[in-house]
Amino acid sequence: MTATMTDTPPPAAPKADTAGGRSGRSFGQILMIVAGALLLVAAVRVITGSDQLTSEGQVSAALGLAVPIGLAGLAGLWSERSGVVNIGLEGMMILGTFGAGWIGWQSNPWLGLLCGIGFGVLGGLVHAVATITFGVDHIVSGVAVNLLALGTTQYLAKLFFTNGKAADAGGNPKQSPPVGTLPTFDVPGLSSGLHSIENHHWFLISDLAGIIGGLVTDLSVVTVFAVLLFVGSWWLLWRTPFGLRLRSCGENPIAAESLGVNVYKYKYAAVAVSGGLAGLGGAFLALVTSHTYLEGQTGGRGYIGLAAMIFGNWRPGGLAMGAGLFGYSDALQLRNGGQTVHALLLLLVVLLVAMAGWKLYKKAHWQGGISLMVGAGVLVWYLVTDEVPSDFVGATPYVVTLLVLSLSAQRLRMPKADGMRYRKGQGK
Known about the structure:
This protein is an all-alpha fold and 428 residues long. The chain is built from 18 helices and 2 strands. The protein has a two-stranded antiparallel ribbon with strand order 1-2.
């Protein structure tokens, strides 16, 4: 992303879209990385005795917290792949929470879900009109959408939830009356068996059982729908002519225009979809997580979603991994966080030492030395304490966000025309 807006550069010779296609790692390499990570986490669990690291409850909570972050990140991916920076995701999520809570308590949660998506689309269209039609700086427009959404929902909450039936049902200026629940389910015959294996606390086997059990237990239908949206977005954006045209608008809209692509139409469609996905993430918070609209319940998840999108290098697979990481760190606050975060300090020490070794191997002595010193400091912290203070546990998701972005910054490749002003006919 870029905080400044410039005119779209003249057409350049197209290059192979390595960022849009292959990730640079084979499927076997990815499996090796995942297997190594599982072995490391399992070893840390056994050494520290912190069984919550890979417990079914921890993973289930992490999944529920990862869904709105992932949807926000997917919303940002759609918008930025078309060349429009969308800082307004937080505001579109806020609109989604209000729409879901407002309609959900008056009718049913399914209509509330649709209304949350619709409110998000409206926020996306406001951003699209400002940036695409009028050429407003994308960052300025996004911040304006966030402020407008916050102020509008606060006003409407006071207008609709403080009198009449809403007040009698428990509404007030900062929250809606309770909303009905959406269906949840377990995978028959699998959840109970995996839970039994987890309770044996076997090395790696119980860890795998806990992780898989958390992914198939107490699932919301919206969670399943979100997974389908990730798969569908990957297929639509990278395996169809529509997706090729949309991504070309984010890489070089002038070249796309010269090939007959209606750049305005594709940008509008992408930003509208982006708003709808962010609104769905907000509706998830209102209907699944808390069963009511609450002022401020997004808690910056729109911004964390952007961080997950950047971590994933503007691709759905990496984005899903980033959302899972942030959701896991967020879940630590809810399940005996101090002791579990303390166990993760040992994992952090191992990762820092490994990074130091790699940097020293690459002759980056300064960076390797810093990694070693930080690792030594974290090891001392782990050895002299038994639990991480609760204040630090609450900041864990944001610390993880900063660490991940700093470590992944060197391999990022955003769309070339992301955030740039486009005007029809520039290439003539």
